[in-house]
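Morning. Coffee machine broken again, so started the prediction first thing and wrote up yesterday's gels while waiting. Chain of 137 residues, entered below exactly as on the submission form.
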Amino acid sequence: MIDPVFGQIEFGVAAWDGVVPFEFPPAGTLHLAVHVCACKSGPSASQRATFQQLCARYAVLWPGIARSLAECHPTLSTAEEVGRSLRPKVGCYIEECATTDHNDFELVYEFDRPGEGSRGYFVRIIGWEVVEAVMAE
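Came back before lunch.
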């Protein structure tokens, strides 16, 4: 399916997946790999609006994201180190539950550093606030 906001996306088990070009030089980001929890009819208008707002607000969210990643990472300690060490594709998981003006979502980062293996760093955004970052292997 070609979505008007997400572009080419494919339906899997209860979600739509795709890769959207998104450049953010301070973190070396080139793409957002979207995973949108929705039924077969496609993402909701609220999910599309959330994604568009995320793209527009990313520069404002970035300092909090970088700080939370630095606090969560076992060896990096500054936002600058985080920005220099990330892989260029960021996961973006948008949930189905909508409030009046946004959907909650997670951004998933990976670091391009020796010893990282399959670690993923999940940054939870609720109400346009960075609420936590956790590491998972």
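The chain has one domain: 2-136. Going to sketch it on the whiteboard this afternoon.
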